[in-house]
Amino acid sequence: MPKVLVSDKISPAAIEIFKANGVEVDYLPDVGKDKEKLAEIIGRYDGLAIRSATKVTEKVIAAATNLKVIGRAGIGVDNVDIPAATKKGIIVMNTPFGNSITTAEHAISMMLSLARQIPEADASTRAGKWEKNRFMGVEVTNKVLGIIGCGNIGTIVADRAQGLKMKVLAFDPFLSPERAVEIGVEKVELDDLLARADFITLHTPLTEQTRNVLSAEAIAKTKKGVRIINCARGGLIDEAALTDALKSGQVAGAALDVFLEEPATANPLFDLPNVICTPHLGASTTEAQENVALQVAEQISAYLMTGEISNALNFPSITAEEAPRLTPFIRLAEMLGSFAGQLTETSIQGVRIEFEGAVADMNTRPMVAAALTGVMKPLLADVNMVSAPQIAKDRGMQVETVTREQQGAYENYIRLTVITERQERGVAGTIFANGKPRIIQVKGINMEAELTPSMLYVTNEDKPGHIGRLGTLLGDLGINIANFNLGRMDVGGDAIALVSIDGELTEEQLGRIAALEGVKQAKALKFNM
Ligand SMILES: NC(=O)C1=CN([C@@H]2O[C@H](COP(=O)(O)OP(=O)(O)OC[C@H]3O[C@@H](n4cnc5c(N)ncnc54)[C@H](O)[C@@H]3O)[C@@H](O)[C@H]2O)C=CC1
Ligand SMILES: O=C(O)C(=O)COP(=O)(O)O
Asked: EC number(s) for this protein (predicted)?
């Protein structure tokens, strides 16, 4: 039974879902804040469910010897070292929509609170001061809202702001002009937004490109008296520059849900009167927490129990519907990769994967990942479909994918070619109606061979007597032949024998086969069936 650790506070409904799906679960909501403890126990788990308090660092991942999946009950994954997880073959998934409405509503609440100084007015009134003249607000109607990052949350904020009769500008390099028209925002460059916005709200992920998007220079370009809302990530604003700008009056107010250092228990911004702070509450509503908890528990369970992948950030999704259709082709791709990988002795420069017929129409990315896994497994035992594409890239392997829709003799086939300095070696296979993989071509030579766990691969010159000699030798060696497949280029040309055997050949036995008259290469191949 797979075992999952929940290391942050998530809705108890998730625990029930894990159990109902046959997944064992430990709910230790304080462990996420204790890096040492997390690293100490993570080795026991196949899955990890987190929110933002758990920092899944390289060190934690190094200790995660059994971990297969990290599920973020929420959106931002800047607390997970995704490259380290990918290299270790661990899927990282999030719940991209579960808390977006809630977070957008928090941003709007923060904007209105800022416009009317609600927290301070509240504190003053409770203190019995009745300072009616002190709290002069601003209307948002007809004001300009600048949204930096117009994805899921930014778009919902835009919609709600339009309801408040605001004019909305958006800076987002990935927002298409058509989409901007559709959602009724004016797509602008950052400098334009900075110069024109009365309110600026941030909704990008924290990445190296977005870090300090509101830097001292950017803040200097804003309209004097701008109000800034950040319900995305702390690192998006240079906090020192914001502090200075709030003091100088360049920025009239800031509403911050997120901070560079969290938990934020001391921060110079807390001392300023025109600042509103909440403790990373963007996603904290009953509805959103229920959504993300249920979803993450379902996603993690589905991956661990069936291999279904949804909302992974480091692997293409495989839906429950396509999983059964894809599985035989993923296995075929891995076997072709393994076939070619085991025959390759020099360093691999590139891999070409061709898909022809019906398979060309399917989701080929998992098949490419599986093929690369097969190719590299003889060298790197713990490579898997998640880590293989990244490892191939890191090693400078060129990966080319070709899809052709026309059909040849087979309804569909995959050809994998490994390119080394010396040669190109291609091997092609198909899936028969019974779902079984078949090799149909090796190095341009047609044959039809079932792949079995232990095989002997022999190349030779096509001369009379070879098959007899090989069969006799295998008999003398006490090796039982389960299946004997032959193919040749042309009469007297290169020929290949692919022999399924019971048991495995020793080096010594292989040496004797290689020494047979006419044999060019003899190799023992193993396949995980
Ligand atoms: N305060 C909280 O509790 C919560 C915070 N968040 C934060 O909100 C962020 C945004 O969430 P979603 O809207 O769901 O993500 P999303 O991926 O749908 O949208 C992000 C948008 O940012 C844009 N973007 C990326 N790089 C950019 C750049 N350099 N400049 C301008 N735009 C850029 C993208 O094109 C995308 O449209 C999350 O990454 C997370 O960090 C999310 C949920 C709750
Ligand atoms: O979903 C996100 O990105 C969030 O920031 C929400 O964080 P949380 O789950 O409330 O710790």
From this structure: 1.1.1.95
